[in-house]
Amino acid sequence: MLENLFLGLANVIHPLNFLGVCLGVVCGIIIGILPGIGSAGGVAIMIPITYWMGPTAALCTLASLYCGAMTGCAISAILFRIPGEPASAMTVLDGYEMAKKGFAGKALGVSISGSVIGGLFSVIVLFLVAPPLASVALSFGPPEYFALACFGLSIISSLGIGNQIKGIISALLGVWFVTVGIDPVLGLPRFTFGIDHIQKGIDYVPALIGIYGISEVLKNTETLSDVSIMYRKVKTELATLKEILEQKWLYLYACILGTIIGILPGTGGTTASVMAYGDAQRFSKHPEKFGTGIIEGVLAPETANNAATGGAMVPTLTLGIPGSSTTAVILAAMITHGVRPGPDLFTKQAVMVNTIYWAMAFANILMAIASLIAIRLVIKCLHIPRKLINPIILLLCILGAYGINNSLDDVYMALILGIVGYLFEFYNFPLTPMVLGMILGPIAEINLSKALMLTGNNFFVFFTRPISAALMVAAILSLFYPYIRDRYLRRNLRKRVA
Amino acid sequence: MQKGEKIFILAIILFAGLMYWEATKVVTPIGAGYTMGPTIWPKLMLAGTIFLSIVLLVKNWRKKAEQEPLPKEDEEFEKPSRIRALWALVICFIYTLATFYVGFLIATPLFVAAILYISEYRKIRNFFLYPISVTIVFYIVFIWLSAIPMPRGHWIFRNFSLLFY
């Protein structure tokens, strides 16, 4: 294990891989700052740029981009009141208030310190938890994998607060979508309508580029106005050791919470930051000050959302089940580069896994350095008119979709899915359940089929094996949790009124 | 619920229904043993989609049609233009088609210029320089570095592309 760890370190400092980490961090921060793209969209757009790299350098780049984007989104949230992505929505509440009071540098410093600590903590957890989990996962059979996929799907479907039904519809359509093509068991074509190109099924990368990338640019072309720049000179002031020690319990809590939320399939940084902010306020000695511009209000969500990055990589690498929408795209990129995530990865490509750990650790440190040195340069990215960025992103999406199989049919597929993504977003259907459905759907289908074949169509097999039974129960509970919670809250409200 | 959303949900129901009907046409061969067949899984997903879409529709129909608040007239915020998004999409489709006939090197600067035009970018010098610079950068990244065989086009366009890659 230690040998692989050192080999991973040697691998990550290889110039090409290290360049990938640096590129990932810089692009991640820029993508995080630019509102509307988001880390998942950013990773999807960056996949084509990694085609010329080897799998290790490509994965170092994308994993670093994920970390960088989580930090970058806080910069625009604090300085411009524009969350680069939903994970930094809570940072706006206190970060922007601090900036208005003239403490923009301090708010940025606290956010970056929290991001680094959260990110590094989660990488350590990833290093400690992933190998034992992978060895447990080696004993998993088809029923366990089916139950795990169901658990992942049930969580993502029940997360959409206020629009659970839309979330479930989105997930179901995502699962259906990947059934197009040849059936994996009997080899019969389904929904192909005689079109040769879709016989082999729908590639993840063009689909994700369409859903996240193209739909986002289409949305961006609707408006022409750019972000108004108020700050031209900001100096980041990192949190001192004394300040960190003063807030040590909050840091620790946000780290643990973020990592655990990240590990749960289908959740991710947004849930982690919302929960961390809520808990920080609940346990604070002065909850009334939250929202007025206090350090804790920036520290908790930023630490938690970065802690979720390493956490989300745990199920992605060990089980091949994405922990968040961004890791779903990273998972698709891994498959594109010929790397099959899952427990076997830890035995067959252990050095690569360790290289990813180190890449994420270095990315967390580099993003602090980048934020300190180049904050003004990074802010300048917001000066670039959106009109000039849109054609570049569209080109990246189109050429990226083409580059997978050197086929224009993939581009048409990405464009069609771009329309689907645009319409779904327009009518408030969340896209993350659809993407995770596309990733988890084939895992669920093939393992359901295998489990039923092995047991002679015995449906009880999912409830007679301990791990699959526990996962199935958890899936059922998480699916109905929002309804039970709503009913409980309504009944309580009625009692109070009475 | 807006009228457009109702139509969108109805479209989902219609689409899922058509796909369900399509799934019924696939015949599982005799002797498939204990396999669940190629269409049970997608049928389950489609049936779930139809059911939940109907639930969503009925649930929202039962609610009293809420009066949509009129958008405040605020000069700071620009009204989004759906037409522009539609144009961008049309340009993307035309570009994809055009790369096949005229090749990547000729279609790309025209594509960038077209997107700039619909975005109401009117700085004349950049309007010409920017598409060419972008094409050069993409040529380096995708053709030189990634060695992706971009479409060369047909006829004289192919000869032109062959000068570069």
Characteristics:
heterodimer, A: 498 residues, mainly alpha, two-stranded antiparallel sheet, 2 strands, B: 165 residues, 2 domains, flat
Can you walk through the features of this model?
- The complex is a heterodimer of chains A (498) and B (165).
- With 498 residues, chain A is an all-alpha fold.
- Chain A has one domain.
- Chain A is 74% helix and 1% strand.
- Chain A contains 22 helices and two strands.
- In chain A, strands 1-2 form a two-stranded antiparallel sheet.
- In chain A, a hairpin with a 6-residue loop joins strand 1 and strand 2.
- The longest helix of chain A has 34 residues.
- The radius of gyration of chain A is 22 Å and the shape is globular.
- Chain B is mostly helical.
- Chain B has two domains: 60 residues; 81 residues, no CATH class.
- The model of chain B has no long low-confidence stretch (mean pLDDT 83).
- Chains A and B meet through helix 8, strand 2, helix 9, helix 18 and helix 19 of A and helix 1, helix 2, helix 3, helix 4 and helix 5 of B.
Tell me briefly what this model is.
The complex is a heterodimer of chains A (498) and B (165). With 498 residues, chain A is mainly alpha-helical. Chain A is built from 22 helices and two strands.
